[in-house]
Amino acid sequence: MVGSDVWLSCIYPKGNSFDLNDLYVYWQISVPGKRNTNSVVTYYLSGNSSAGHGDNHYKGRARLSLDGMKQGNFSLHLHNVTPQDEQKFNCLVFRKSLELEKILEVTVTLNVAANYSMPVVSGPSQDEEFIFTCTSTDGYPRPNVYWINKTDNSLLDDTLQNSTVSLNARGLYNVVSVLRVGRSPTVDVGCCIENVLLHQNLTSGQTETFTGTKDSITEDPMDDTQDAVNPPVLSVLAVLVVAVAMAVATGWLCRSRCPSRSYAGAQAARPELELTGQFARREGDPWRNCRSTGSGELGAPLSLCPPFRTGATR
């Protein structure tokens, strides 16, 4: 991965130990565009206390382990990998005591990759056709770009898109892809960036959905549903208002027709009328101990005494 460190393996298979004064070690790459021409990445020569560098591009980034070489491990440690490091590296080991006989040769192919940013889709423009733009940056190697119909996940025709892939200052790729589709009631598309080396497909996370007619496009399909719900809600509110009004009117009518009842508090005791003459109470009269209770019709007291006549007695 771009920016990481990597070890390019070159190990003597027999497990021998070596004297550093008896070794010549070279790591080199082929020069692009020049056949049979190599450029030295780093090297170690018999009698040196450290390795040297032949290509300035690898100065400070490529090194050999002196302790490892004593054990037959001639691997190259490459720091901060860049896209330009995607090369075939050759490891060559010679022994001085054997008249510079080559005892080991290994070729290592380094593949470099970088993750693309999540593609972002913008648009559409309000024109005679819908125009969507997809962008993704800082990836490696060169990607494949697809537009998909998210309704059924089918690929859209390549002729509908125009993609531009360019190298930036870091040696990584930036992508800009433009999709043009005819206006239709529903458009649901997504942009996909494929990194073949990483077996990675990145699809724009946001679904670009637009609904409406060819003359009127609405970005929110829920608006029509909300408008359809409003009339029933208003009808229910109207019924509730009428019911409340009827209840208030009924209560007012009842209060105007029904007599009001109030509590006047404790009443003073009525003094008993003292009867004289023939109406005086006599011992044994049945009404002597009679009493009145409650109130009768029109407020008259109710009597528990038997009736008597006021006329002459026979």
From TrEMBL:
GO terms for molecular function: signaling receptor binding. SUPFAM superfamilies: Immunoglobulin. Belongs to the immunoglobulin superfamily. BTN/MOG family. It is found in: Cell membrane. The chain crosses the membrane at residues 233-254. Keywords: Adaptive immunity, B-cell activation, Cell membrane, Disulfide bond, Glycoprotein, Immunity, Immunoglobulin domain, Membrane, Signal, Transmembrane, Transmembrane helix. The keyword Nucleus does not apply. The gene is ICOSLG. Its main location: membrane. Residues 1-107 form the Ig-like domain. This is ICOS ligand. Pfam families: C2-set_3 (PF22705), V-set (PF07686). GO terms for biological process: adaptive immune response; B cell activation; positive regulation of activated T cell proliferation; regulation of cytokine production; T cell receptor signaling pathway.
